[in-house]
Design goal:
By secondary structure, the protein is α/β, with parallel strands linked by helices. The chain contains 14 helices and 14 strands. The strands form 4 sheets. It has a 7-stranded parallel beta sheet with strand order 3-2-1-4-5-7-11, with helices on both faces. It has a 3-stranded mixed beta sheet with strand order 8-10-12. A two-stranded parallel ribbon has the order 6-14. The protein is globular, with a radius of gyration of 20 Å.
Length: 353
């Protein structure tokens, strides 16, 4: 149940996902009972958070381990959306949560932003996997190698739950798409358009044609930013008000998806938008050379990662928290056109600067 004031530590408030989730949480009917402290790297954005949104802000980064531990110790709920792969940061957060549990007997809550990247393979765009993992399939999730993308940090959270000093929930979206919007973004607190579709739009505009790794045959789950935000909001609310029937720890993985796409189809959607804008002659993606992979992705590690398979089903969120996503993959392709238009405006702005 809600206490008179629910202490919350929030990381990632200035990010694409974290910013959207925070502004949704601030609309909660009990928001006036939330005592939110955000860890923010930029002092100006910290001031905006405090003056415009009533969120306490501490200037610092995930590298400030002692500060992170102290802040986590003071929070009944930690919403960690800053970095899915920072093991020292998670260690620091969990150390604070454990101190809290040992000192006052509270079992604090952790909601952690991870990603469906833990399901990736080594397809390199050459094939579509037939493996589709439900978040209700605990055995399949247990079988994910500790070395999988994001998973080392996920396992740290699960271990804390198993040890009993925290109650942990892991949200693992597929490819998130959608233009940034809302008061935190309008105020300049949160950053805009940090997603894969926007990245492809920028890269392929510069290339003059859409591209793929291999055949582009691999498949990823996808989810709109607004649906992702709503999942976080519902989970946040349920974790505070009615956690008894809510899976946590090993049973606390919540995939976020409402459809899936091949990487070829996504890249072609960007290519079609480039043709419509008069910036390419052909919408069909062509295979990226090794040199282009290095230029666009910084090397083959990230290039291949973007063209893996990661197929999942968000059965737990639909069943346990009543999540009802409304945006489908067809909208992903429409958003690709909007992202190309945004990329064009940025290009014009950079040329005139």
């Amino acid at each position: 149940m809600y206490t008179e004031k629910t202490s919350i530590l929030y990381t990632g408030a200035t990010g694409y996902v974290g910013g959207h989730a925070l502004q949704r949480i601030l609309t909660h009917p009990k928001a006036n009972t939330f005592d939110i402290t955000a860890l923010v790297r930029d002092a100006d954005r910290a001031k905006l958070l405090e003056s415009k949104f009533g969120v306490k802000a501490v200037v610092g980064s995930l590298k400030d381990a002692d500060k992170l531990t102290d802040l986590a110790e003071g929070a009944h709920l930690v919403f960690h959306a800053a970095d899915s792969d920072d093991e020292p940061a998670m260690k620091a957060i969990l150390a604070g949560m454990k101190k809290r549990h040992e000192k006052i007997g509270d079992t604090p809550i952790l909601i952690h932003l991870s990603g469906a990247g833990s399901l990736t393979d080594d397809a390199r765009g050459e094939y579509a996997s037939q493996t589709v993992t439900s978040d209700l399939d605990i055995a399949a999730i247990d079988a994910i190698p500790p070395t999988a993308f994001h998973h080392a940090v996920d396992l740290m959270a699960v271990a804390a739950d198993t040890e009993g000093y925290a109650r942990t929930y892991i949200v693992a979206p597929g490819i998130i798409y959608g233009l940034s919007h809302g008061p935190l973004f309008d105020a300049g607190v949160a950053r805009r358009n940090l997603n894969q579709v926007a990245f492809f739009a920028d890269a392929f505009l510069a290339r003059g044609r859409a591209g793929v790794v291999g055949k582009g045959a691999s498949i990823w789950a996808d989810v709109h930013i607004d649906d992702t935000t709503e999942l976080f909001y519902l989970l946040f609310d349920k974790a505070l008000t009615d956690p008894a029937k809510l899976g946590h720890g090993r049973e606390g993985y919540y995939f976020a998806e409402n459809g899936e796409h091949s990487l070829y189809a996504l890249c072609k959607a960007v290519g079609t938008a480039l043709v419509e804008a008069g910036r390419a002659e052909n919408a069909e993606p062509t295979e990226l050379t090794a040199e282009e992979r290095a230029t666009i992705f910084g090397g083959d590690v990230m290039a291949f990662l973007n063209f893996t398979n990661a197929r999942c089903r968000a059965d737990r969120a639909r069943r346990d928290i009543g999540w009802k996503p409304v945006h489908t993959t067809e909208e992903l392709y429409r958003v690709a056109k909007l992202e190309v238009q945004t990329a064009l405006r940025k290009q014009v702005g950079n040329m005139s600067a």
